[in-house]
Amino acid sequence: MNLKVVILAGGRGTRLSEETAVKPKPMVEIGDYPILWHIMKIYTHYSYNEFIVCLGYKGYVIKEYFTNYRLHNSDFTLSLKDNEIRYENSRSENWTLTFVDTGMGTETGGRIKRIERYVEGETFMVTYGDGLSDININNLVKFHRNNKKMATITAVMPPGRFGALKIDGNTVSKVTEKPKGDNSWINGGFFVLEPNVFDFIEGDDTIWERGPLEAIVKKRELGAFKHKGFWHPMDTVRDRNELMNLWNSGKAPWKVWND
Q1: Number of H helices, E strands in the chain
Q2: What single string gives the DSSP state of each residue in 219-252?
Q3: pLDDT tens digits in sequence order for the chain, 259 residues long
Q4: Contact between residue 130 and residue 243 where contact means Cβ atoms under 8 Å apart
Q5: Strands (E), 145-213
Q6: Whole-angstrom Cα distance, residue 215 to residue 115?
Q7: What is the dihedral of CA 68, 69, 71, 74, to 10 degrees?
Q8: How far apart are CA 111 and CA 101, in angstroms?
Q9: CA distances, 97 to each of 31, 73, 126 (Å)
Q10: 161: which residues sit within 8 A by CB, 6+ positions away?
Q11: How are beta strands 124-128 and 4-9 bridged, if at all?
């Protein structure tokens, strides 16, 4: 089954204000492409090509980019007389995208709740629009199916700046906020979810990482896929610059696809 991929792309990205004053955070570029494009390329490398993009802050920028994707990524000849465009080296992707306006101030859980009808009662994936990884998506999905939990979270282990996960075997037993020190597993996004997770989301004000995830943890239904490879968020200008340097070096770990 080709699972749909939900990308949370509605946030403001206030710590990247020099960029996000004019564009949403997922449209901040790494190299010549928005970080959202990089995330989608990771999934499409593993043949997941159906995306549901949760829009919010400046969502029209995302709509415009993908509506005019060929224009942004191809050479072309424009005939003003005939109002015709002839593409010279057209670049396109085998993507199907559903854009959903999930509200300006809607929290992460609320955004997921708003796309419930688009996943049509099937298993689906969710990730954030600002995190890159060399995660093997096929292995993640296989783990989820074999583990037979309601939800799977990808656990990663960067410096201790984020909320931590306590894991017993392959099951999350506790979620804590931003512990001091390193060597704690944290929420790296890249979820695989069963449709009954929607029952744990009340509405727009629900923060996915708190009420719903905590309730799923209490039921011992949150599996942890431990990813020990590369994972990096883009929360700050420093993060953006680090990712840019990796990309420009030609050795970006998350570039699992071939050009």
Answers
A1: 9, 16
A2: TT-EEEEE--S-EEE--SHHHHHHHHHHHHTT--
A3: 689 999 999 988 777 877 777 899 999 999 999 999 999 999 999 999 999 999 999 999 999 999 989 888 888 898 999 889 888 877 779 999 999 999 999 999 999 999 999 999 999 999 999 999 999 999 999 999 999 999 999 999 875 556 678 888 899 888 876 654 466 889 999 999 999 999 999 999 999 999 999 999 999 999 999 999 999 999 899 899 999 999 999 999 999 998 7
A4: no
A5: 151-156, 164-168, 171-176, 185-187, 191-193
A6: 20
A7: -170
A8: 9
A9: 22, 17, 14
A10: 178
A11: parallel
Give the DSSP H/E element, type plus range, for residue 146: helix 137-147
Q: Regarding the domain with residue range 4-248, which homologous superfamily does it belong to in the CATH classification?
A: Spore Coat Polysaccharide Biosynthesis Protein SpsA; Chain A (3.90.550.10)
What are the residue boundaries of the structural domains of the chain, listed by start? 4-248
Distance between CA atoms of residues 115 and 132, nearest Å: 23
Neighbours of 28 (CB within 10 A): 23
Tokens linked to 115: 């796309």
